[in-house]
Design a protein that fits this description.
The chain is mostly beta strands. It is 0% helix and 48% strand. Strands 1-6-5-4-3 form a 5-stranded antiparallel β-sheet, with no helix packed on it. The chain has a 4-stranded antiparallel β-sheet with strand order 2-36-33-32, with no helix packed on it. The protein has a 4-stranded antiparallel β-sheet with strand order 7-8-9-10, with no helix packed on it. The radius of gyration is 23 Å and the shape is globular.
């Protein structure tokens, strides 16, 4: 692969960004071409530019799937790289080389039964970099200098895969033993405390959503995401904890609404979470993207409230409270939420169709004086907690535990061990549990109706 450093773009266009002044906090970033969607916005490895990718047509006569360039923004100038004939889902710089990933036949190249899912930029043209059987790359990341690709990858170099591959020793290889579900689609991957953590769709022993690699085997972390239609869409590490956002509801048995965090013992809520209306814990919100910047977790997507305060698609979390960010990205015709975002220095760029009623052509930048909006004052207990907290006795326990008050008939609880594995999920009214055969250690009892409770088994 050829280095991008010092190269001149022989194919492409350069367009100056003219910034209008009609909006107080947000303006269109003047991305070139007709934009159908932006799948990702990501800062370059040196932090000096932003990469945009999705469905972009520099020639308005072309269809959305015919010509799709990677677009780079730096110092008020847009650069459009040569087009690829497929939707671009993800981009990054790896060893000073620009990579683009996407769906089947990202390049118009015949590679037998395989499909080109990742291409690299030589400085003048795109060339194939990775071909997978039945390939669809949703996200690429460089973790500890190793390149990972996740998506719908059933086979890598002739070996069964579970949607995750890495580039090692000049070749691609699957990561971990395959998950039993043949339709696994991974959305993203991170590294936490030396272990790989992935999110996606695919079942392991009936659970799904969030996966941890241990001894080359993928296991579901803390029971994963509950509910058949619920799913994880974004993941981040913040304050030494894992945060997962997406279509996650309390009513489906998840501990958080729209977002939850892993504290090492179990999944925890972030106050009342992300809601479309106060007290609505059943309808889906979308935490599409999360970015850590200036000691805050920035959450963008499709929601109207964060922690009970108004946040029309964009909010921040500081570890104890939610704050809204000025701007309306949802709630009006054409306002479909935020699909991608990242910072260029301290300026936030988002991928969204409209902001505050103004068309943005899917790229907007913040020009306001402050990102600070209203903040929630209480974050400890989700607003749907209509029942009192558990009192578990005896604690420490030896043979049995009793719940005071007992669970109600419509309530389902989960008991998790110290590694976040679900031990039992009794339903209906539960007064007492026999724990005499359980290993000694710390356990957590979770319910969508109450704050979590812990007990020690001696």
């Amino acid at each position: 692969m050829s280095s991008l450093c010092g190269s001149v773009l022989a194919v492409g266009c350069i367009i100056s960004a003219l910034v209008p002044t009609h909006a107080q906090n947000w303006v269109a970033a003047q991305i070139p071409g007709k934009v159908y969607n932006i799948q990702q916005v990501v800062a370059s490895s040196d932090g000096a530019s932003l990469l945009f990718g999705g469905s972009i047509s520099l020639d308005s006569s072309n269809a959305w799937y015919e010509t799709n360039p990677v677009i780079r923004y730096s110092s008020g100038v847009w650069e459009a790289f040569s087009e690829l004939p497929a939707v671009i889902y993800t981009m990054l710089e790896y060893q000073d080389t620009l990579l683009a990933g996407g769906g089947n036949h990202l390049m118009d190249t015949d590679l037998s039964d395989d499909t080109t899912c990742i291409a690299y930029w030589t400085g003048t043209e795109w060339l194939p970099f990775a071909a997978f059987t039945e390939g669809l790359v949703r996200r690429m990341r460089v973790l500890d200098d190793t390149l990972y690709a996740v998506g719908y990858l059933t086979s890598v170099q002739g070996q069964p895969a579970n949607g995750i591959a890495r580039y090692a020793g000049g070749t691609w290889e699957p990561v971990g033993e395959p998950i039993a579900d043949p339709y696994t689609i991974m959305q993203d991957i991170i590294k936490f405390e030396g272990r790989l953590i992935a999110i996606g769709v695919g079942q392991v022993n009936g659970d799904r959503g969030v996966y941890r690699l241990e001894n080359n085997v993928w296991t579901v972390l803390g029971g994963g995401v509950q509910g058949g239609l619920c799913s994880a869409q974004s993941i981040a590490v913040y304050n030494d904890e894992i945060y997962v956002g997406g279509q996650i509801t309390l009513d489906c048995g998840n501990p958080g609404q729209g977002i939850m965090r892993w504290d090492g013992l179990g999944w925890q809520p972030l106050g009342s979470g992300l809601q479309n209306a106060i007290g609505d814990n059943s309808s889906f919100t979308n935490a599409t993207v999360m970015v850590v910047h200036n000691d805050l977790l920035w959450v963008g997507g499709g929601f109207a409230f964060a922690g009970g305060i108004e946040a029309k698609g964009l909010a921040t979390w500081d570890g104890s409270q939610w704050c809204g960010v000025p701007g309306t990205f949802v709630g009006l015709p054409g306002h479909s939420g935020i699909h991608g975002m990242d910072f260029l220095h301290d300026t936030l760029f988002v991928s969204t169709r409209m902001v505050d009623g103004d068309s943005m052509n899917y790229a907007a930048k913040f020009i306001g004086e402050s990102y600070a909006g209203p903040c929630a004052s209480e974050v400890g207990v989700a607003e749907n907690s209509t029942s009192s907290s558990f009192s578990i006795c005896p604690n420490p326990a030896t043979t049995h535990i009793r719940f005071n008050p007992p669970t109600v008939r419509s309530e389902q609880i989960s008991v998790l061990d110290a590694l976040g594995r679900i031990i039992i999920q009794p339903s209906g009214q539960v007064t007492e549990l026999d724990v005499s055969s359980w290993p000694r250690g710390l356990y957590t009892v979770r319910s969508a109706r109450r704050p979590p409770a812990r007990f020690v088994l001696h």
